[in-house]
Amino acid sequence: MHTRTRAAYRSATLLKTGLRLLVLAFVLAAGVLHAAPASATSSTEQPTSILATCSGNACNYKDPQATGCAVGASNFDEWTYMGYRVEHRYSPTCRAVWVRATYVSGNVASFGAYLETRLTAGNVRQNVVWRGNTGWSGMYSSAYYSRAVAVTSSGTHYGDWL
Question: Structure pTM?
Answer without folding.
Answer: 0.69
